[in-house]
Design goal:
With 168 residues, this protein is of the alpha/beta class. It has a single domain (2-141), classed as Aconitase, domain 4 (Alpha-Beta Barrel). It contains 8 helices and 7 strands, in the order E-H-H-H-H-E-H-E-H-E-E-E-E-H-H. Strands 4-3-2-1-5-6-7 form a 7-stranded mixed beta sheet.
Length: 168
Amino acid sequence: MRLSGIVHRFSPNDDINTDYIISGRYKFKIDDMNELAKHVMEDISPEFSGKVRNGDIIVAGRNFGCGSSREQAPRALKAAGVSAVIAKSYARIFYRSCFNVGLPLVECDTDWIKDGDIITVDLDTGEVADARTGQKTKAKPIPKTMQILLQDGGLIPHLRKHGDFALR
């Protein structure tokens, strides 16, 4: 699976927690994910929801998604049109929640990726490439079970498709 999109680079880029992704003031008041998506990243980039387009990619540093483990954060990112997040590392529960909702996370060095770059990610080979500079890097491999969940659109669509947890 290949993804390509415009980069939205976040700074500070380490320890972006789930309350930065979607503020607690909205998490429990808005159930509609499309409505919640209008507030994604609002506290660190108030203009983000107005400029993100389907297929765009978020780039950050270490420990992206730390904090509370609520699934609204990855669901709101996906509803906003984010096709993937590329970061140096992720909080463990956030990592699993993203794959459960079908949002790919890619782990690699991100220091070379700039805001506005067009990045292509090959989830099968792990290659991350910048169309502007031609620079490439290898990402940490995505486990096969997570790749299957992504292909099926997340955990719930996988269960609907197969009727069980078997990852064929």
